[in-house]
Specification:
Beta Polymerase, domain 2; 5-stranded mixed sheet; about 900 residues; Four Helix Bundle (Hemerythrin (Met), subunit A); 42 helices; 4 domains
Length: about 900
C-alpha cells in the first residue's frame, strides 16, 4: 500500500502532502469496505481530480483524513456527477442527520456543511462544474444553513414566549444575494419583520425578533472540531452596527427614504429572499424598488461609487497589493461589479430586466441595450470568470478570506500550476491582461479621478501631527469603506467642521480626541443622522469632544454603546445628582435577577458615564462628584445584596472612602461583613467583581476585617468586639473612623461598638506618634520615589490630610465618617482654627480634584502625577490652568499648606 501511495503521489503538485494524507486515510480505512486503492483507482471522476484536490486544499485533505467514509460517499456517481438543487441537498441533509439537527449547537449541520464544501470543491477542481454552478451551490448551501438555524430558533422562542402576530424575513445581499458566493465568503444578510406590536405585556415584536436574530448570529459564530457554519455579516443593515439587528417593514421604509445612501442602493441591488417569510421579502423589495433604481439618479452617483473604490484601495488593499488582489485591487472583481451595478442603478428604472442580482446574467443585457459595447461586455465576462477562478483556487486551500496572489515564490508557483499554467510569469501575464482590461472599462464608465479633494484648509496648528489630522478629518468627512457620506451629509459636515475645530483647540490632546471622535462616528453607524444632530446641538458636540479629551474610558464606553449618549443626556439627566433611593428604584425597574446581573452592570456603566459628563460640564464640584460615585456604588451593593441574601441576615459596613461617601473614579469599595452568612458574602463579592463586556459592577475589598485576609469573611458582632478588645492594631481602629452602616439589621449595633472602641483608643498617649509612624511607612512603601509627584502618599499629600483629621477626631472624640463633615466639626468645636481648617480643606479639595481628573481618564486608581512633562501639561490644561508653571505653583502651595498644618498637630 505504501509503495502504491508513494507512486500515486509522485505526479501531484505536492507529493509529500498527498502521500501523508493517503497514508493516514489508509490507517483509518474501514475494514468492511473495498480497499482504498480500488476506491481511488475507480473513482467516478478519475483519480486525477481527487489527487489534485489533496494537493491544493489542506482543509479538504484534512476532512477526508478525519473521516474516510466521506470518500466512500463521494464515489457514488450521483454525488459528483451534476449540480445539486435545493431538494437534493435537503434530502442528503436528512439522510446525514440521525438525531435532532440542533444537538450540540448544530454540530451535524456544521459537519454536513463541511462535507458539501468538499464535494463542491472537488467538482470545481475536476472542471465538471462551471463557475455559475459552483457559486450557486455554495450560495444554496448557505441558504439552507440559515433556513435550518432560523427554523429551529423561531420554534424555540415561540414555544417559550408565544407566537407574535408577525413574520420574519431574511434577505441575502452581496454575493449571497447574487448566488455568487466563493469558498470563504461572509454571508451578508438583513432581517426584517412585518410590523411593530406587543407579543405580551413584557415582550414586543421588536424584542422578540431581535432575540431571535441574536440566537441565529450566535449559532453561526460557533466553531469547534466539527468546523463552523458561515461568517454572518449584519453590517449592511440600516445604521450598521449601531442599529438593531431586525427592523419592521415600516422602520426600513422610513430609514431608506430618509437616510439611504448610494452604497445602500448598491447593497440592495443584490437583495433577494433566502429564508423566512417570502411574501414579506417580496413586499420589501417591491416597496424599495424606487429607492434601488431611481427614475432620476443623482449626478453624483458615479463619483460616489468611484470614491468608494478609492477608499477600498487606500484602506483595505494597500498600494503594494493593488495589482495582486483579484477582488479589490485595480481591475479586480469589485470593479466589474461596480461597472455592472452603476449601469443597473442608472438605467434599471426604465429597463426592468436589468433588475437582476447576478453579475454574469446582467452583462449580456447591458450589451443588448448598447449600454456597454459588446466586446467590452465579453471582455468583462471573461475577466470575471478568470478572476473568480483564481480567487477560488486561493481560498480552496484553507477556506480563508484571501484574494491576493502570494508574493512568496513557491506559493505563487503552486497557485499557477494548480490553474494549469507552466509557471508564475504566465499566470501573472494573464492576470494583468484581464485586470488592465477591467480597469480601462471601469475608468471610462465610473471615474478616473485621482484622490479625493481635501477639505477646505484651516488652521491645524493645535495638532502635533497636522498631516495626520488632515487625513483624519478627511476620513471623518468621507467615511470608512461601505459607509461613505452622500453629498448632503458631506455639506452638513463642512458646516460642522469649524465648530469642531474650535472645540478641539480647547482640548489638552486634540490629536487623540479627534481619533476617538472618528471611532465614535464609525460606531454610531448612521453618519448623516449624527452630523445633523451635532450641527443642530453645538453644546452636544462640545460635550462629546470634551468628554473624549477628558476620558479614554468614557470614549470606549460610548464607542462600544453609542446609544448611551442619548440615554444619559436626555432632558434633565445631567442637571442634578441621583440619590441612593433613586438609584435603587431605577435598579428595581431593570430585568436583573439572581441569575442575571448584566442589567446592573449596564446601569452602573451608564450612570458612571452620566456622572463623568456632569464632571466635564462643571456641573458638580469634587465633593458632589465623590458623593455621587458613592451613592451609585452603595445602591448597586444594596441591590445585589438583596438578591443574593434576601433573608437580610448579612450586614454590610462601609469603610475607607466608601464609608466617608467620598469615592472617586474606579475606586474599590472597602467593606466588612457582620453576620454568619458567609455564602451570601462570597456570592456578593463574585457578582460585584465579575467582568463581562459591560465591565464590572464594582470591586469590593473585604480585607478590613478581623485578621485581614487570613480571617473568616464574615464575623459575628461578638467576634468583632472580642477582636477589637484584644488583638486589633491601631490602624484597624483608625479605619473605624469612616465606618458607616450600609444595610443589615446589625448595622446600628456595630457602629455603637465601633464608636466605643474608637473613642477608647483615641485617648492613648502616643496616638499621634503611632499614626505619624504609620503615615511614614505608607509614604515609604507606596510612593514612587519622587515625593513631589506623590500627591496621595507624599509629604503634604492627601493621606497626611486624612490622617491628621482622623487623629484629631479620635483625640477629641468627634465621630463623623466624612472628611469635610469631620473637619467642619473640629473647627466648630475650636479643636482646629478656622484659618487652618480652611487651608486644609481647600488644599485637600485641590489634590482630590487632581486625583479625579487623573483617575477619570481610565476609570482606575492613580496615586501620583505623571513623570512625563507633556502629560503634566495636559493635566494642567484639563484642570483649567493656563500653563504648567501656574499649575505647579498651586500644586506646591497645596502640598505645603497641608504639611504645615499636619506638622503643627502630629509631629
Amino acid at each position: 500500500m505504501a509503495v502504491w501511495i508513494r507512486q500515486l503521489a509522485a505526479d501531484t503538485l505536492q507529493p509529500r502532502q498527498v502521500e501523508r494524507m493517503l497514508l493516514r486515510m489508509a490507517e483509518k480505512w474501514p475494514a468492511d469496505q473495498r480497499v482504498l486503492r480500488q476506491v481511488v483507482e475507480e473513482f467516478p471522476l478519475g483519480p486525477g481530480p481527487l489527487l489534485h484536490l489533496l494537493s491544493v486544499s489542506s482543509i479538504c485533505a484534512t476532512r477526508l483524513e478525519r473521516d474516510p467514509q466521506t470518500l466512500l460517499w463521494l464515489q457514488h456517481p450521483d454525488v459528483c456527477d451534476s449540480q445539486r438543487g435545493h431538494g437534493r441537498m435537503m434530502a442528503d441533509l436528512r439522510r446525514f442527520t440521525s438525531g435532532p439537527l440542533a444537538a450540540e449547537n448544530f454540530r451535524a449541520l456544521r459537519e454536513w456543511k463541511g462535507r458539501e464544501m468538499l464535494r463542491i470543491a472537488l467538482r470545481e477542481v475536476a472542471e465538471v462544474a462551471p463557475l455559475e454552478e459552483t457559486t450557486a451551490e455554495l450560495s444554496q448551501l448557505a441558504e439552507i444553513c440559515v433556513q435550518q438555524v432560523l427554523k429551529h430558533w423561531d420554534a424555540e422562542l415561540r414555544a417559550r414566549f408565544g407566537s407574535p402576530q408577525a413574520e420574519l424575513a431574511v434577505l441575502g445581499l452581496g454575493k449571497l444575494g447574487g448566488r455568487e458566493l466563493n469558498h470563504s465568503s461572509d454571508i451578508d444578510v438583513i432581517f426584517l419583520y412585518t410590523e411593530e406590536g406587543q407579543l405580551n405585556a413584557r415582550l414586543s415584536h421588536h424584542e422578540f425578533f431581535n432575540r431571535l436574530v441574536t440566537k441565529v448570529a450566535e449559532t453561526f459564530s460557533a466553531n469547534d472540531a466539527a468546523g463552523s457554519l458561515f461568517r454572518i455579516d449584519l453590517r449592511l443593515r440600516p445604521e450598521g452596527t449601531a442599529g438593531p439587528m431586525a427592523r419592521s417593514l415600516e422602520s426600513m421604509e422610513n430609514y431608506y427614504s430618509g437616510y439611504g445612501e448610494t452604497w445602500e442602493r448598491l447593497a440592495l441591488s443584490k437583495a433577494r429572499s433566502i429564508a423566512g417569510d417570502q411574501e414579506l421579502a417580496y413586499d420589501f423589495l417591491r416597496q424599495h424598488q424606487p429607492f434601488i433604481y431611481p427614475k432620476s439618479p443623482t449626478p453624483e452617483l458615479l463619483d460616489e461609487i468611484a470614491a468608494i473604490k478609492r477608499r477600498i484601495e487606500r484602506d483595505i488593499v494597500g498600494h503594494e497589493n493593488l495589482d495582486r488582489n483579484v477582488k479589490l485591487g485595480t481591475g479586480g472583481i469589485r470593479e466589474i461589479e461596480f461597472v455592472v451595478q452603476a449601469l443597473q442603478l442608472l438605467h434599471g428604472a426604465r429597463q426592468p430586466f436589468l433588475q437582476e442580482t447576478s453579475t454574469l446574467k446582467v452583462l449580456p443585457g447591458l450589451a443588448e441595450l448598447e449600454l456597454l459595447p459588446r466586446e467590452e461586455a465579453i471582455g468583462l465576462e471573461k475577466a470575471y470568470r478568470f478572476l473568480r477562478r483564481v480567487e477560488h483556487r486561493l481560498q480552496i486551500e484553507s477556506e480563508q478570506q484571501t484574494h491576493t496572489v502570494p508574493q512568496d515564490r513557491e506559493a505563487a508557483s503552486l497557485l499557477a500550476r494548480s490553474l494549469g499554467f507552466a509557471e508564475t510569469p504566465a499566470l501573472m501575464k494573464a492576470l494583468r491582461g484581464h485586470m488592465q482590461e477591467v480597469r480601462t472599462v471601469f475608468a471610462r464608465i465610473i471615474s478616473a479621478q485621482p484622490h479625493d479633494q481635501p477639505l477646505a484648509s484651516a488652521n491645524l496648528d493645535m495638532f502635533r501631527d497636522q498631516a495626520q489630522a488632515m487625513k483624519t478629518l478627511t476620513e471623518l468627512a468621507q467615511g470608512r469603506v461601505g459607509a461613505h457620506m452622500a453629498p448632503r451629509t458631506r455639506q452638513i459636515f463642512r458646516n460642522l467642521r469649524p465648530m469642531l475645530l474650535e472645540v478641539l483647540a480647547q482640548c489638552a490632546d486634540p490629536d487623540a480626541t479627534l481619533t476617538q471622535l472618528v471611532r465614535f462616528v464609525e460606531a454610531y453607524g448612521l453618519r448623516s443622522a449624527l452630523f445633523e444632530l451635532l450641527a443642530a446641538n453645538p453644546r452636544l458636540l462640545e460635550l462629546l469632544v470634551k468628554t473624549f479629551d477628558a476620558s479614554r474610558y468614557a470614549a470606549d464606553v460610548l464607542i462600544r454603546r453609542p446609544q448611551l449618549l442619548e440615554e444619559v443626556t436626555r432632558a434633565g439627566a445631567l442637571d442634578r445628582g441621583v440619590s441612593v433611593s433613586q438609584h435603587l428604584a431605577a435598579l428595581r425597574a431593570t430585568a436583573a435577577t439572581r441569575q442575571n446581573f448584566e442589567p446592573v452592570r449596564h446601569y452602573r456603566q451608564a450612570q458612571t458615564l452620566r456622572i463623568l459628563l456632569r464632571d466635564v460640564l462643571g456641573l458638580a464640584d469634587v465633593q458632589a462628584l465623590t458623593a455621587e460615585h458613592s451613592a451609585l456604588a452603595e445602591a448597586c451593593l444594596i441591590f445585589v445584596q438583596n438578591l443574593v441574601a434576601p433573608e437580610g441576615d448579612l450586614t454590610i459596613i462601609a469603610l475607607g472612602k466608601f464609608g466617608g461617601g467620598e469615592l472617586s473614579y474606579g475606586a474599590d469599595l472597602d467593606v466588612t461583613f457582620v453576620g454568619e452568612n458567609t455564602r451570601a458574602a462570597q456570592e456578593l463579592l463574585v457578582e460585584m467583581g465579575k467582568a463581562t463586556a459591560e465591565g464590572t459592577i464594582a470591586a469590593v475589598d473585604p480585607r478590613l476585617r478581623p485578621d485581614g485576609e487570613k480571617g473568616t469573611l464574615t464575623c459575628s458582632l461578638a467576634t468583632f468586639e472580642s477582636y477589637y478588645a484584644t488583638r486589633a492594631q491601631l490602624w484597624e481602629v483608625q479605619a473605624l473612623t469612616r465606618a458607616r452602616a450600609v444595610c443589615g439589621k446589625e448595622g446600628a449595633a456595630f457602629i455603637e461598638l465601633a464608636q466605643r472602641t474608637w473613642r477608647a483608643i483615641g485617648q492613648r498617649e502616643n496616638l499621634f506618634a503611632q499614626i505619624d509612624a504609620m503615615r511614614e511607612r505608607i509614604r515609604r512603601d507606596r510612593g514612587t520615589g519622587v515625593d513631589i509627584l506623590d500627591y496621595k502618599t507624599g509629604l503634604g499629600g492627601m493621606v497626611e490630610a486624612e490622617f491628621l483629621v482622623q487623629a484629631v477626631q479620635m483625640r477629641a472624640g468627634i465621630w463623623n465618617p466624612h472628611f469635610h463633615g469631620a473637619l467642619q466639626e473640629l473647627v466648630q468645636h475650636g479643636v482646629v482654627s478656622a484659618e487652618r481648617g480652611e487651608a486644609l480643606r481647600t488644599s485637600y479639595d485641590f489634590l482630590r480634584r487632581c486625583e479625579s481628573v487623573l483617575r477619570r481618564m481610565e476609570n482606575k486608581g492613580v496615586a501620583a502625577l505623571p513623570r512625563d512633562e507633556a502629560q503634566q501639561r495636559k493635566l494642567a490644561q484639563r484642570l483649567g490652568f493656563a500653563s504648567l508653571e501656574e499649575f505647579g505653583t498651586r500644586y506646591r502651595e497645596a502640598r505645603e499648606a497641608i504639611h504645615v498644618v499636619y506638622v503643627r498637630y502630629l509631629e
